[in-house]
Amino acid sequence: MEIEKTDSCKAAAKPRGRPLSFDRDQALEQAMHVFWQRGYEAASIAELTGAMGITAPSLYTAFGDKERLFLEAIERYATGPGGGYPRALEEEPTAYLAIKRCLEEAAEELTRPCHPPGCMVTMAATNCSVASAHIQAALAKRRAAADAGVRCRIEHGIQNGELPADTDAAALANFYATVFRGMSIQATDGASRESLLATAAAAMRAWPGVPQAS
User: Fold this and answer.
1) What residue ranges carry the coiled-coil annotation (predicted)?
2) Do the beta carbons of residue 126 and residue 187 sit within 8 Å?
3) How many CA atoms lie within 13 A of 145 on its CB side?
4) What pTM does this model have?
5) Euclidean distance between CA atoms 207 and 106, whole angstroms
6) For the segment 8-35, what is each residue's pLDDT rounded down to a tens digit?
7) In sequence order, what are the residues at sequence separation of 6 or more whose Cβ sits closer than 8 angstroms to the Cβ of residue 121?
8) What CA–CA distance (Å, rounded) separates 27 from 53?
9) Distance in Å from the first CA to the final CA of the chain
10) 143 with 122: CB under 8 angstroms?
């Protein structure tokens, strides 16, 4: 983010260019919503600059290009609306409660009316051309890291005796990742919060053994 220099700093070194005439953080927030709604390729520079309230030259000055703007928007999503998943895995005392919370919070977040429906990391690079394969690969890598976090939480639960010793951690993690992504697609198709909560509840009934409430 652009930081305004003090007078003493200005005296010590000349600024490289004119300071930004807009709120970069707010502009990035608006760009995130456009990419979330339209996807990477479908979002045009005109749509982005219109939502951000800036000109195309200002976009390139502040963010470099469309690709770098998109990757910054994805990072903003991951630490904002999409940040509940890792927090649940870290904060809950058992693997069962962690994944249950992940799905229940997803049902809430994926259907909030204040932003586009669904998961941005799941939806933003679908139907991209070969030219954007590297963008798809970057998002696939991020999804794989999220799946690995779920698998590690399940493995920890097996070690602690929360799940049967013969539980296939990778398969179970893949199952819940698939449920989450299916919920994201359902949300973009207009599924309600109540419908997604019902899906989450059904998925948790597939948990191996008898889960502990706390």
Assistant:
1) none
2) no
3) 9
4) 0.82
5) 18
6) 334 334 334 455 678 999 999 999 999 9
7) 74, 77, 78, 82, 139, 142, 143, 146
8) 7
9) 42
10) yes
